[in-house]
Amino acid sequence: MKETIISLLETALDNLKQQGVLPADAAPTIKVDPTRDKAHGDYATNLALMLAKPAGRKPRELAEELLAALPDSDAVQQVEIAGPGFINFFAATDAAAQVVRQVLDSGDTFGRSLKGKGQKVQVEFVSANPTGPLHVGHGRGAAIGDSICRLLEATGFDVTREFYYNDAGAQISNLALSVQARVKGIEPDSAAWPADGYRGDYIAEVAKDYLAGETVHADDRHVTAKADPDDLEAIREFAVAWLRREQDLDLKAFGVEFDVYFLESSLYDQGKVEEAVERLIANGHTYEQDGALWLRTTDFGDDKDRVMRKSDGNYTYFLPDVAYHLNKWQRGFTTVINEQGADHHSTVTRVRAGLQALEAGIPVGWPDYVLHQMVMVTRSGVEVKLSKRAGSYVTVRDLIDEVGRDATRFFLAARRADSQLTFDIDLARSQSNDNPVYYVQYAHARVCSMLRRAEAESLHFDHDLAMVSLARLDAEQEKAVMNRLARFPEVVSHAALSREPQQVAQYLLDLAAEFHSCYNAVKVMVEDDELRNARLALGLATRQVLRNGLDLMGVSAPEEM
Questions:
Q1: Is 465 helix (H, G, I), strand (E, B) or coil?
Q2: CB-CB contact of 488 with 151 (8 Å)
Q3: Does residue 511 sit in helix, strand or coil?
Q4: What's the whole-number mean pLDDT along residues 407-416?
């Protein structure tokens, strides 16, 4: 319907140009949006206000001329001018109802498009250090990142999901020392415990399996413990593999899979970090000071220069990040999206500056970032701070065990990434309309129940009769549902391009609200065969779009609740 109105307005503009009302070079972007108040029609445009100045007319006067220049259309029942010059369009019932046919014909593909034209996109998300179970912040990154991938795939992009393992550096040394301390019987409250050691119960589990000579099967490696308390390197290798396996299990429980697992250690093993340093030096963007090697990131928008190699010879953390992103570019990813926690905000400018200093043809502002804010978990109104197993935080597995995968994923992705999130366990477990995921899933299950009832009463759905009876869907509540269904493709496209899966969550809540309202106001199981089948078709279309939208968020669509 929206595209139809835009086409009508384009014809009206051409007519007014030919009449000399508008300049021949006028080429406005025509905006047509759904109205908030249905008393003002189904769609509205501010085109007359935009063009009033170049036309030399008052907005309302130009609106009248636009209206007069509109071609006739069976899709539009009424057009009126409102306020200072808005033009409101009322869709003809039959035209609005055709979205039901379109949804049922398209099925699982409704809402999908080829706008991405197969362009390669890499999305890096989660990328947790292999030093402990995934915490709820990683869970938010997983829910948002995976939903972004699903949205991009739904709009025709060729998506690669990537997990970057920080398996090198000080945190891995601390992990190995922590496990070694446990292996030797040292407790976290002992004075002999490593200063920066990890204290969660999982460290004891790693130590127990190491001493038992267990074999760990992780995603990309198989490691058998040597059971030697003094072989710190063997302990490190086993501990990393053990925790990688645990993170793999957490992600599988969350319904998240990756195409590529990239190891930070490989950048050092293959000399990629040193190559990046040599290239930066050769390009003249570095200098030595106080025994350290610095990069002039201020030349590329940073607020101060950054140390690349410390005086002790070790690299700072942002340098391997630069080498890693150069590798992404060399792999042919012209679009890269990094979904990370807000604590990475300071690295954005540094990494981008380092990439510019490489002079490798990488565009300014590459890569893209989606940064999510922290999550606070509450139960009975009180913050839940600790997981016994993790020792210092709430894990993703804790939430999945408490409220299930669906509620966890929906809650973590249903708010803007840059907004702080309070995860209310009690709300997520409740079976009430206040629980957003329950509210949406219940709408889907309600349609299934309605269809089961029809079958039980031998009132089988007649698709052909429904399709020729769609014009019977003329109740206001039915039109509201149909108008909402028609917006789904645009929501998917916009959410994908803006990297905002919460737009889909909000759409699903709006659609569920429209459907519940319609269900309560309009009787479906009527004796009139045409009307009943048309209303069943509307239910089927609603169920399809709810399922399509929930799938974009990695959430199931149950048939019974």
A1: helix
A2: no
A3: helix
A4: 97
